[in-house]
Amino acid sequence: MNYRDLIEDALRGHGADYCEARIEETGSTRLVYRGKGLEDAVVNSGRGGNVRACVNGGWGFVSFNSLDGLKRRVTQAVDQARAAGGSGTQLAPVQPQVKLASPRIVKDPRKVALAEKKRLMDHYNGLIFAVKGTQSVSSVYGDSSRKVCFGNSEEAYIEQEHVHVICRITAQARQGGDVQEGGFSIGTLGDYGLMDGLDDEVTASAKRAVALLSAKPLKGGERTVILDPVLAGVFVHEAFGHLSEGDNVAEDKKLQEVMVMGRRFGGKHLNIVDGAAIPGLRGSFAFDDEGTAATKTDLVREGVLVGRLHSRETAAMLGEKPTGNARAIGYNFPPIVRMTNTVIENGNATFADLLAGVNDGVYVKNWYGGMTQHEMFTFSSGEAYMVRNGKVEEMVRPVMLTGNLFTTLENIDAIGNDLGMNQGGGCGKNGQSPLPVSNGSPHIRIRKCLVSGA
Amino acid sequence: MSEELLNAAKRKFGQAEVYRVEGESRPVTFEANKLKELSVRESSGVALRVISKGRLGFTSTTNPDDEAGLVARAGAVAEFGAEAPFTLPGPAKYPKVNVHDSAVAGITQQHMVDTGKELIERLRDKWPDLLCEGRVGTSTGRMQIWNSSGMEASYEQTGYYVYVGGKLIRGTDMLMLWGGHSSCGLFGKQQSDLILERLLQQLEHCRNIVPAPKGDVPVIFTPRGVGATLVSPLLEGFSGKNFAAGTSPLIGKEGQKMLDARISVYDDPTLPMASGSRPCDDEGEPSRRLKFVEKGVIGGGYFDLLSAAKAGKKSTGSAHRALTSPPSPGTSVIDIAAGDTRRHDIFASVKDGLVVEELLGAGQGNEMGGEFRANVSLGYRIQNGEITGRVKDTMVSGNVYKVLAQVEAVSKETEWVFGSMRAPYIRCRGVEVAAKG
What we know:
By secondary structure, chain A is an alpha+beta fold.
């Protein structure tokens, strides 16, 4: 089926201020391990589409699996937009592109046989049970491909394909009613090679799960924490990234006063960027789901707020430039402002510098999850270690860190020089989860962080 | 189409199951105090699950052009699939569970727009600085399932929901509140009034920010707070997956009294019109009321066919699935029993304590073994029986088995939480409260 002709044909005479259509084809493979071994082997395919229209600032959105009667869907979306009313369409201009973008493929997971994927996951599974004391596993291997054909009323037509590989491996150890976990999550854009060479990390995870059974819980309270690159990545995503999303700010005058350009958020050593134009990462792409070219946006420069993430609408509302951050997780959702690859840039300190002068602090690594609600954020570590007199000492039970964005960024008093990326996670917002993103940072040190133990 | 698919799969493999869904949802969305978007979302797809030489293969598609290839694909997957030590169930008798309201089809977009607009207007009337959001929507859907053992089940379902919330920003202090209700059927002014009443009450409680209480204080979980804090770590132990994996702390504990006698927790997918109710599960097993805890005594877990087979139990009609995933054990409508203390007295007798309504970051730690740990995103301090204000930068943590064994009081009154769970107010000890400063 020629999707380009289908879309252009359907959009002709749409009658809206702006109209776009997307048709997507998807495929995925998943191997789920639970308990002692493989639990699910899944291969899916999909196809669907949507039409989105804007009339006088009101939006209509129609999504479907059947591609029959696309023109009727356009009419329906436009009618809905008209009925939604509004006070004027605001969309920042972008150069309409006609592009067939090639996906980033290093080692195509679709060309690797299911038998081989299973063999490798079975091997890693075996390594976990080779460690004495492990009880069970909870692991997933997944790869997915998403082909997106996008056309709009400005005569843009873009085809893109996004191929992802993710792997999460978790070992569980049990002693009576106490169950502890050790694991890791990784991911890549288009590279099955991610799956090679994980033996040491798998074995270390299993040993950690067992060791956690005898680790003590930490008493909750304020402490100095050192975050590893992976957890610091989750931190910048939750603590700052979400508040940078233009849709939170665009129609909220009060929030605009708070997130005002030029406001100081941290020390001069703090620089934060987000962009899909940073190549080769899970949040990388050529065009967002509105056809805007990807960028790399400075959010914080030398501690001061200098930028935001936008869709065409939020950019227009704030009189700022579109940044290529309008993303939809699939054809059944409209694009909204999302993060892509979010990074705290390198500072000058070494890891040793960060440890020095920390007494009764905590070194936290790896992630379990994170969440944000405006200025409040939480994130959970997978590993935690006491730091006394500048030395990393015994493992304690994993902790949760929480705080207020404004004070916490100010309380970052040292930024390392060893940038590392976390590509094993996905972002959730407005029911669109898990959206592929990456986030990263060097090691960072935060004073007076609220930490909760067990 | 489905019959052909099932027959083709049956011929090739030992066992096969076809699961087909189609549905439509029509949400109306409000942002920044005004109507923003009207949408219609149609979806349809089919999943094929096969057991070939004792191994499971699962595949699904939303592309009608791919349906012809599903049998071959399922077979290719089953070659490397997991062991399936169970037989797909034969025909069964299903309870009559009312999940369809013909009035839903008649709900116009205009009605939904008016409902959302009115709620937002009434909220802003009392709190003009509130920046409101809302979502009102209907859904209709049909599920059909057939298998090679002769089982055939299907039902149609409708849904209606109203959610409204607002953001209040004072400097760098931000408050975000949400309220709402969902049901299989249309509900009207009485329910909307309740949503509004609760939101206004929460806004009142949050007028002032106060320091969190310190030390070993009593914590009152409102019905929402019970849902946010206690339910998930408690249910983790009852999951058939964890019985099958040997990781549930409740293995071998059936019949033991572990919690306070005032605690009884059920899953009841047969409750009429409740959001989450259904006559059968996603493997075609009949729905039934399940007893997890009764008067503090531990009952059985919730199982689908696979987890039941692995754990040496029977399916409890608890299979849940999304189109693109194989079934796995889950719960439908959690129903926690009322106690014997008036709600007024739950609050009145507290000298200094914490009230928990919503958490941020719950479920993102190790919930195995009953642990919970999160930031209190909506919670209040209660002193001498009165709520004195909102607390912030406060975390609660604990173990649900310990906390529910230290129950001080359970309210006579229960409330529906967003239409899919019913719970009382529970006051207990043993929760660690950590706060800044």
